[in-house]
Specification:
Blueprint (H helix, E strand, L loop, with lengths): L6 E3 L2 E2 L15 H7 L1 E2 L4 H5 L1 E3 L6 E3 L2 E3 L4 E3 L43
Antiparallel strand pairs: 1-2, 1-3, 4-5, 6-7
Length: 115
């Protein structure tokens, strides 16, 4: 989702509309990587991802109409640390989840994938 968020320095966009770095903020890509930061995301409003009412699970919306766009589909990756995905050891174990498909239109697939 990083391609939908601003890369900025002190509130000013580091990236220009012609797909180049703004030389006013950094002279080369390495300097931009050090000087600029990726803006945070509003996952509920943009991607339709939020915690459930019990705060022990998540809600994923298929269509989310945001202020600037309409987003179709949502996905999450479970992290085990700052830069490591969670490894699930599933042999002889069960992973259960509840899905409300009452509003899922005909022809759409609601699924969970372990990759």
């Amino acid at each position: 989702d990083a391609n939908w968020r601003w890369v900025n320095k002190n509130g000013q966009n580091c990236y220009m509309n012609d797909n180049t770095w703004d030389p006013a903020h950094c002279s080369d890509p390495a300097m931009c990587a050090q000087q600029c930061a990726l803006e945070g995301a509003d996952y509920a409003a943009t991607y339709g991802v939020s915690t459930n009412s019990y705060k022990d699970g998540v809600n994923l919306n298929f269509v989310t109409i945001g202020a600037y766009s309409k987003n179709f589909g949502s996905r999450l990756y479970v992290m085990d640390g700052e830069d490591t995905y969670k490894l699930f050891r599933m042999k002889n174990r069960e992973f259960s989840f509840d899905v409300d498909v009452s509003n899922l239109p005909c022809g759409l697939n609601g699924a969970v994938y372990f990759v």
